[in-house]
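Dear Dr. H.,

I hope your travels went smoothly. While you were away I took the liberty of generating a structure for the chain from your last submission, since the lab meeting agenda had it listed for discussion. I wanted you to have the full record in hand beforehand rather than looking at slides cold. The sequence, exactly as received, is reproduced here:
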Amino acid sequence: MTIKDKHLRGLLCLVILVLGMFLVPAASANSSSTIPSLPNAFEGSLKGDAAQAGPGLVISAYIDSKLVGSYTLTKVGQYKVSANGTEQDNGKEIIFKLGGIASEPVSVTYEHGANPVKLDLTFYGDFIPPEIQALSASPKYILNDGEDFSTVTAKVVDDSGIESVNLDLTSIEQGVVSLKSEGDQYTYNIVSTVPGEFKFKFTASNPSGNSVVDTDSISIIVLKESQLATTFGGSDGVFSSEEIEALVNNNDVSSGIKYAVLGAYFADGWDRI
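The corresponding predicted structure, in token form, is as follows:
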């Protein structure tokens, strides 16, 4: 290696060293700026009337009357919630509410990025959710013509009354709907043009904001006419008289499906059974 090559090699090493001194701090700064700030997290037991508060009830945290965090309870008498404030909120009081009811006074202030805090909270009020005594949808199979329907029937009770009873039909493009009430009985007719198998979330709430949720009981199957033979007929896709009779006597099948099958396969309808 010549003296010139040694000088060039030394100069190159010096340039790399200098560049590294400038780039490393910049990279570190960029990395730190992308790290999200940690919320002020709290968890513990619910005391007072809230000791029996259970799944479905929402606990919320507020700073300066602004909602900064909420959590839906999953266990009876236990909560956790994170207050997502900013550095400007440091030292400000946090107010906790359960179902819209403020807790008994606690001396808690926001600490940006602090470690999780163990904190028991005491609430007084109505924290018992409504009771679903009956819930079903019948028939199970309906036609996707937008007219055939399955009727949801429910019985919901609460000593303090019922504020709302809703059904989430978002999966069939109808949003959240309210059930019709007559005393403690609630009904709704589900129609759909969207075929498929569906389970719908049912929610009942009382005036205090306590809710009960059921995600399993309301289940229906919406069929296109082209699916009827393969669903209820034989493997050959053709109905026998025995299969037609079984279909007609099946209470899980809507009248719309029954008439569609009879109209398609028997020109003279019911008197062929």
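Two observations you may find useful: Helices lie at 3-34, 228-232, 241-248, 255-265. The CA atoms of residues 140 and 220 lie 5 Å apart.

With kind regards,
E. W.
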